[in-house]
């Protein structure tokens, strides 16, 4: 069984969506975790756009990268784009998927625009996961 950790800064959107998507895609063949360098809370819009795919991440929580046992991880996937990604120590395989943070405090963005940003991030993560799934099978 592969153990995969998805990392971003707040562990509120990208890494949470990646965790939910990967669990759905890989099932029992992988242990999937997510964490962040500055954990906050799971963003309600991340929960909402995942429900659109039939995936419930409402029971997930934001976790600090410090809570993760480095000896138990086989692969670390960082999802940061414009911000500094968390550092994960240890000798593990690493991938970087630079996906912009869909969360924004820009007051000019409507709820629909924000929801669309989350859908775009979710769909980008999903495409990366499909490619990763093919690699894990080989």
Account of the protein in words:
The chain is of the alpha/beta class and 138 residues long. Helix content is 35%, strand content 16%. It is built from three helices and four strands. It has helices at 14-26, 44-51, 111-137, and strands spanning 2-8, 30-36, 75-78, 93-96. Strands 2-1-3-4 form a four-stranded parallel sheet, with helices on one face. Helix 1 (14-26) links the parallel strand 1 (2-8) and strand 2.
Q: What is the overall shape? A: globular
Helix and strand sequence = EHEHEEH
Cα-atom radius of gyration: 14 Å
Mean pLDDT: 92
Instruction: Outline the biggest β-sheet.
Output: 4 strands, parallel
Query: How many strand segments?
Result: 4
- Poorly predicted parts: none
Structural class by secondary-structure content = alpha/beta
Strand content: 15-25%
Q: Termini distance?
A: 13 Å
Task: Provide a quick synopsis of the model.
With 138 residues, this protein is an alpha/beta fold. The protein is 35% helix and 16% strand.
Secondary structure topology:
Layout: E1 2-8, H1 14-26, E2 30-36, H2 44-51, E3 75-78, E4 93-96, H3 111-137
Parallel strand pairs: 1-2, 1-3, 3-4
Helix pairs in contact: 1-3, 2-3
Core attributes:
4-stranded parallel sheet; 35% helix; globular; 4 strands; alpha/beta
């Amino acid at each position: 069984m592969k153990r995969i950790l998805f990392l971003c800064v707040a562990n509120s959107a990208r890494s949470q969506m990646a965790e939910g998507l990967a669990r759905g895609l890989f099932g029992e063949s992988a242990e999937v975790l997510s964490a962040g360098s500055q954990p906050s809370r799971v963003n309600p819009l991340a929960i909402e756009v995942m429900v659109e795919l039939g995936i419930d991440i409402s029971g997930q929580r934001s976790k600090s990268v410090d809570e993760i046992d480095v000896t138990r991880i086989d692969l670390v996937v960082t999802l940061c784009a414009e911000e500094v990604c968390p550092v994960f120590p240890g000798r593990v395989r690493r991938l970087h998927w630079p996906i912009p943070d869909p969360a924004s405090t820009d007051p000019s963005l409507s709820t629909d625009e924000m929801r669309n940003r989350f859908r775009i991030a979710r769909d980008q993560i999903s495409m990366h996961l499909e490619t990763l799934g093919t690699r894990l099978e080989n």
